[in-house]
Amino acid sequence: MLSSRLRFLLPVAAVLLPSVYAWSAPAPASAWHVLYEPARIVNGSPVVIRVTTPKPMKSLLGSWLGHELSFSFDSRQKVWYALGGASLETKAGVYALELHAEVPAGQAISYEKKIPVQHQRYPRVILKVPGKYTAPSPEEQKQIEEDKKTKDEAFKTLSAEREWQGAFKPPVEAEISDVFGVQRVFNGTVQSTHQGLDFRVGPGSSVAAINRGKVILARPLFFEGNCVVIDHGQGLLTLYLHLSKFLVNEGDIVEKGQPIALSGGTGRATGPHLHLAVRWQGIYLNPQTLLGLTLP
Length: 296
Ligand SMILES: [Zn+2]
Fold this sequence. Notes:
There is one protein chain. The protein is mainly β. It has three helices and 23 strands. A hairpin with a 5-residue loop joins strand 8 (93-102) and strand 9 (108-117). The two termini are 19 Å apart. Zinc ion binds next to loops.
């Protein structure tokens, strides 16, 4: 049986056959097969898409929800796979995944598969932080402006090569203290969406890179506190916030599981914890879903 987390999209050739056949039979050699995980995609979900092509291909490109998908070939399983995602703003609906493959002889073939996105309503919470984080002084506002330029520059990074490999690994072994997508109201005035995942760790815990990549930012910022950003390639960045100590420098290559910093409570934080964020092609995705994906 297929894992309940995976969902088969029926290939065109199998549509006329009883569905039980389509679920249990191996993929016919002449059909496209598209699988995606998680089975229930919501606004804010990262998604891994696996594609079996009707014949060997030289390359496979895709687009979904206005984003380009770079597919890699897993020669062991003979399947193409790519990471994608639906932003928090994505409305519920069915969105076509366009696939364009190049066969070794040079011609191109295309295929389209519709993938549904369901609506997820996220909770709202009220939090208290020091007053400077909701009413910064002119000097602090200047720093916030400078930080914005620093982040904009880092977020422009779009390395063509994929650096990550295999499943993503949690940055700390700790329980989750706040989930992704929560609508927060700070000090009764400032509203913001929680675009990351919080882990309950005291100060001084070792924080590890969730996959291989290059450190593109490791410096103190006003809201984020001491912040590390890792570029995993193909538009995928991970951010680690509120750190007490850096263990890496900008430009370093880090491996999955390598300690990059010690946790803390710097910046706009209600107390010590680790905030992990996943940014893909300019949108924030749910880190908890990414950590649960099965990846080759
Ligand atoms: Zn957080």
